[in-house]
Specification:
The chain has 750 residues and is an alpha+beta fold. The protein has 29 helices and 23 strands. β13 (565-567) and β14 (570-572) form a beta hairpin. The longest helix has 32 residues, at 491-522. The two termini are 40 Å apart. The structure holds manganese (II) ion.
């Protein structure tokens, strides 16, 4: 984000407040030292001072978009490293220096000379990361791989990068809107899951909320408003809930803290979306937390004692007990979660953990390392890093596939399953029996024909759930096929399957080689690399292997070889008669797309300026927050910022995103859909259609109503001019007697 976040300083504004600003800078630095004090050893202070001065000098002439001197940013990043992640002196130094190599005259050698190899390596890792997201997508994936390699070398790189990202997100307000969308998307796409995976729950939550603030501004504000409106009521309820528990725990002699904690806006929004309920219907807007002071050898016992006391008071839901004491998550998280029936018939989640577990939940990896000595659990992070290294080592595809695979296999939530002997294994959510087979061993995966899950026979694609016990069934006749790729999510399984397919392709391609040799000789030519290339290019194939494979499987018959000319050792392909032209389509772009930094495109009134189409996945209408996406061949496609595909597109193809905005428009109308749920009432259809076409004069494209057991569910497709008109329509329908819910649908699935 560096280049964009910097602007040169004009001498006059700078000098004006120079003295004051310098004081302010020193004040921030002192606060940093205070936070770090318990960790500072002899000699550290001088090193920190050198880093601070080096960074201050290097960034001297730069300012952030907000106008403040740039050095505030590295100091803030270092502060997050110390206070929120629990990192030490060396990471603080790296935090202070993290943008110097990228943006200033300071070189890695300078840093190595001053601070040694360890710090120079981390700063190098941070420098590589900062260039990741602004280039094209495949290069981006390539860079991301580099980061991951650095990460597995020294996890501090990614922790400091997360601190950097967090501070950038906290100060995103002063950036331009399309920049905000892009950065917020990247954050929700990669950084929040990465924070989660590193066990940094607070940072993950804040990153998600901040992203949502920019990506879904309206919804964010609405939920925040409702949360603050209902705060008093909630506090009252929490106090009522906690009171008897406090007494019980005190009587039992526990040293503890108990409090209610609101859930994040992002997680509430997820619930609303997932369950299709309204804000008022989300029951767990908060969770109760019990933090115990317990000696390490009595932790588990004490947590269960508390569980017992809590469930004496309130009845637990049998389905909602999560025991991460016996089976910690692989990001280190340990706790006991239960959901109980509280006063007024409300379900309440209670999280029980010790102080040590709480620190790990908040500071993740760093705290985990702190407690590592003396704990007998094997190191889950080391294991995770090893798996990443393995996956990086044996895959050669680039592009988005890799990022997608990485997300599903390394950043997803996990399930734990058992081998027939009762050994526990961790796999990402959505893993199949086949994933498990490959996880055990490549040879077992390749021969897998099915599995027994909890003693029941299931196909290889069967999705596993936590607690399943799996026995893999193999056959020597089995071998991997292309469609297996659709049944697996782990990188290990995917890579093994691809390797096997490639091997098989090579064997088949051998036959194609003989066919091609014969045919070449048939026209008087010879089989040599130059000639094979000529044929390959003629058929527009990417590799010789591909060519030979297609010849062997007869998807190419080599008839056209007769048209080749033969000159000595060389054959030449004929000139192609018609070249396919990609943009010769009805959606062709009539004018060059302006670069992302130039004028905004206004469409609607002046829609003749540029060809665009509306995305089918989210059906935007005027007034929606939208962005334009430059597609190959289809011109500009307009998506809503809330589109399910938006974060993916914005995060991975940021360079193809164009800022777009609606112009006022009354001539064109747009198709959109509403789903309505209500109590079946005689004449309800009539009332609805009366409002739509009678009162509001809106055109109806389709209307279906189904009624069952006194409830009805309807979908209506209407043509509206803009968001305001739609909102008005929704309000009018909602005001009808018996109507329970009116929702716009996001996709064309209905
Ligand atoms: Mn930075």
């Amino acid at each position: 984000m560096q280049d964009d976040d910097i602007k040169p300083v004009s001498a006059s504004t700078y000098n004006l407040n120079e003295e004051q600003e310098n004081k302010e800078i020193v004040r921030h630095y002192r606060a940093l030292l205070r936070a770090l004090r318990p960790k500072i050893k002899k000699g550290d202070k001088e090193l920190l001072r050198t880093a601070f001065e080096m960074a201050t000098n290097a960034h001297k002439t730069m300012r952030r978009k907000s106008g403040e001197p740039y050095i505030f940013h590295p100091i803030a990043v270092a502060m997050i490293c110390v206070e929120e992640i629990g990192l030490g002196v060396r990471s603080t130094i790296c935090g202070l220096l993290h943008d110097t190599v990228e943006d200033t005259d300071i070189t890695l050698d300078d840093i190595k000379g001053e601070f040694g190899n360890e710090i120079a390596k981390i700063v190098d890792g941070l420098t590589k990361i900062s260039t990741v997201m602004d280039t094209n997508s495949s290069q981006q994936a390539e860079n991301f791989k580099k980061i991951l390699l650095t990460l597995t070398d020294d996890p501090r790189v990614i922790l400091i990068k997360l601190a950097d990202r967090l501070h950038n997100m906290r100060t995103l307000d002063s950036m331009k809107q399309e920049k905000q969308l892009k950065i917020a998307s990247e954050t929700i796409w990669v950084y929040a899951p990465l924070a989660h995976r590193m066990g940094l729950y607070n940072i993950k939550t804040e990153l998600e909320d901040l992203s949502m603030k920019y990506l879904e501004a309206d919804t964010y504000k609405e939920i925040a408003k409702k949360l603050s409106e209902t705060k008093r009521e909630r506090t009252k309820y929490i106090n009522e809930f906690i009171r008897p528990l406090k007494d019980k725990l005190t009587q039992a002699g526990f040293n503890f803290e108990i409090y209610g904690r609101p859930k994040s806006i992002h997680s509430i929004w997820n619930k609303i979306k997932k369950k299709g309920v309204s804000f008022e219907e989300v029951y767990d807007l908060f969770a109760i937390r019990v933090i115990l002071d317990a000696p390490i050898d009595k932790e588990k016992e004490d947590c269960w004692k508390v569980y017992s006391l809590v469930t004496d008071e309130y009845l637990p839901s049998p389905e909602r007990l999560r025991d991460w004491l016996s089976n910690p998550k692989s990001n280190g998280y340990e706790a006991l979660h239960t959901t109980v029936m509280g006063p007024q018939g409300k379900w309440v989640e209670v999280q029980i953990r010790t102080k040590r577990m709480n620190e790990i939940a908040e500071k993740g990896l760093a705290a985990h390392f702190k407690y590592k000595e003396g704990s007998h659990s094997e190191d889950r992070f080391d294991k995770w890093f090893m798996q990443i290294r393995e996956a990086l080592g044996n895959q050669d595809e680039g592009g988005i596939d890799f990022l997608q695979d990485f997300k599903t296999s390394f950043l997803a939530e996990e399930i734990y399953v058992y081998t027939p002997k009762g050994e526990v294994k961790m796999l990402p959510t959505n893993s199949s029996a086949l994933d498990f087979a490959f996880y055990i061993h490549t040879a077992i995966g390749s021969k897998c024909i099915g599995a027994k899950v909890n003693h029941k026979l299931v196909p290889i694609s069967h999705k596993l759930r936590s607690g399943d016990q799996i026995e893999i069934i193999t056959s020597n006749k089995q071998k991997p096929s292309e469609d297996w790729l659709n049944s697996v999510v782990t990188a290990k399984a995917k890579n093994s399957i691809k390797d096997a397919l490639r091997e098989e392709k090579k064997v088949i391609a051998e036959e194609g080689k003989y066919t091609l040799q014969r045919k070449l000789e048939g026209i008087g030519g010879v089989y040599n690399p130059y000639n094979v290339d000529q044929v390959m290019n003629y058929y527009k194939l990417g590799s010789q292997l591909d060519l030979l494979y297609r010849i062997a499987t007869k998807s190419i018959d080599l008839k056209e070889l007769k048209m080749f000319t033969v000159l000595g050792d060389k054959v030449e392909a004929p000139k192609p008669v018609v070249a396919p032209v990609e943009h010769n389509l009805e959606h062709a772009i009539t004018r060059p797309i302006p670069k992302k930094d130039s004028e905004l495109i206004i469409f609607g009134e002046s829609s003749d300026q540029i060809q665009y189409s509306l995305a089918k996945c989210c059906n935007p209408i005027p007034g929606d927050d939208v962005f334009g996406f430059v597609s190959t061949g289809k011109g500009l496609i307009i998506h809503r910022t809330t589109c399910p595909n938006a974060t993916q597109l914005l995060a991975n193809y940021g360079h193809r995103v164009v800022k777009t905005k609606w112009a006022k428009n009354k001539e064109i109308s747009f198709l959109t859909g509403l789903s309505i749920i209500g109590l079946d009432d005689v004449g309800v259809v009539n009332k609805i259609t009366n409002i739509i076409s009678g009162e509001l004069k809106i055109n109806i494209a389709a209307l279906t109503i189904e009624s069952k057991d006194g409830l009805f569910q309807g979908t209506i497709k209407v043509y509206v001019h803009d968001k305001d008109e739609l909102a008005n329509l929704v309000d009018r329908i909602k005001s009808l007697h018996g109507i329970q819910q009116v929702n716009r649908f996001d996709t064309e699935t209905v």
